[in-house]
Amino acid sequence: SSGACVTTTDCRQTPCPTGYYCDLLNGACREGCAADSQCPQPGRCDIATHRCECSSGAHPCGGRCVVESTASCGAACAVCPSDANGTATCTSGQCGIVCLAGFHLCNGRCVPDSSTDSCGASCTPCGAGANSFATCTSGQCGITCLTGFHLCNGQCVPETSASACGASCRVCPTVANGAASCENGACATQCNPGFYKCNGACLSDSILACGGCTPCPTDPNGQASCSNGSCGLSCNPGFHKCNGSCVSNFNLSSCGSRCSACPTDWLGTSTCDGTTCGIRCQSGFRLCNGACRSETDSRSCGPSCAVCPAVTNARATCTNDQCGFTCNAGFSWCGGQCVIDSITSCGPSCAACPGAPADATPLCRSGQCTSKCDDGFVKCGGGCCRATAVSAGESGTCILIGDGGAKCWGRNYYGQVGDGTYMDRNIPVDVQGLDGGVLVPSVAGDHKCAVTSGGGVKCWGSNGDGQLGIGTSGGRYPLPIDVVGLTEPVVQVSAGSVSTCALTTDGGVKCWGYGGTGQLGDGTWMSRSRPTDVVDVAGAKSIATGSTHVCSVMQGGGVKCWGTNNVGQLGDGTSTIRLTPVDVVGLSGVSTLAASSTHTCARMVDGRVKCWGKNDYGQLGDGTTTNRLAPVDVLGLTDVTQVSAAPYQTCALTSDGGVLCWGGYSFSTPTSVSGLSSGVTAIATGHWHTCALTVEGAVKCWGDNYYGVLGTGDNISRSTPTFISGE
Question: Is this prediction's pTM over 0.90?
Answer without folding.
Answer: no
